[in-house]
Each structure stands twice: as C-alpha cells, then as structure tokens.
Specification:
Distance between the termini: 40 Å
Largest sheet: 7 strands, mixed
Shape: globular
Strand content: over 45%
Helix content: under 10%
Radius of gyration: 13 Å
Number of helices: 0
Length: about 110
C-alpha cells in the first residue's frame, strides 16, 4: 500500500507564509489536502488532479496554492497571508487504487 508523508509545518505569525510538502511512495491518485483544527471536524482544503487541475476551499482561495511535482511524487501547499483560523493539523490524502491513504499530519500554528 502506498504511503504519504507530510512536512513543512511550524509556528508562523499572522500574515506569514509556509509551504507544506507531501511525498508519496507508490502510485497515489486524487491527491488532496485536508486540515483539522482543535475541536473541529476534518475539512477539505484543496485538490489537484493527475491532469493538474486545482480547486481550493473558499476559506483559503486566493491565499493557498496547491501544486505537484510528478517526477518527485510530491504535492505541495503554499500558504500565504496566514490567519489564526488556519491553525490546524494539515493532512495529505490520496487514493491507492480504491484504498484511501492518509499521511500522519503536520501541525501549522498561526500565532503572534
């Protein structure tokens, strides 16, 4: 089964930027980013298809950009103009065939 490993989280001040990375082992499709804030349900953030089409949630549109590098089997989330409400654990998600695969998550904390 494929695996996903995220990195790049950390503590950043409001208005700052972070770039998250997700490296896939194996053949993973339909890759997405999700996040889960304390006390809240996990929510979808962004999707990138194998053809490169991208879509982002309204809450992050214009601030976050999802991209991928097929040669490196990697997906990225560039997060700009970060707000306190972006504080969450960010998860990478994909499909290995019909099996859902989740990464272990990376913590993003936006605070002054």
């Amino acid at each position: 089964q494929g695996q996903l490993v995220e990195s790049g989280g950390g503590l950043v001040q409001p208005g700052g930027s972070l770039r998250l990375s997700c490296v896939a082992s194996g053949r993973i499709f339909s890759m997405k980013w999700y996040r889960q804030a304390p006390g809240k349900q996990r929510e979808w953030v962004a999707t990138i298809t194998s053809g490169g089409m991208t879509i982002c949630a309204d809450s992050v549109k214009g601030r976050f950009t999802i991209s991928r590098d097929n040669a490196k089997n990697s997906m990225y989330l560039q997060m700009n103009s970060l707000r306190s409400e972006d504080t969450a654990v960010y998860y990478c998600y994909g499909l290995d065939g019909l099996t859902a695969v989740w990464g272990q998550g990376t913590q993003v904390t936006v605070s002054s």
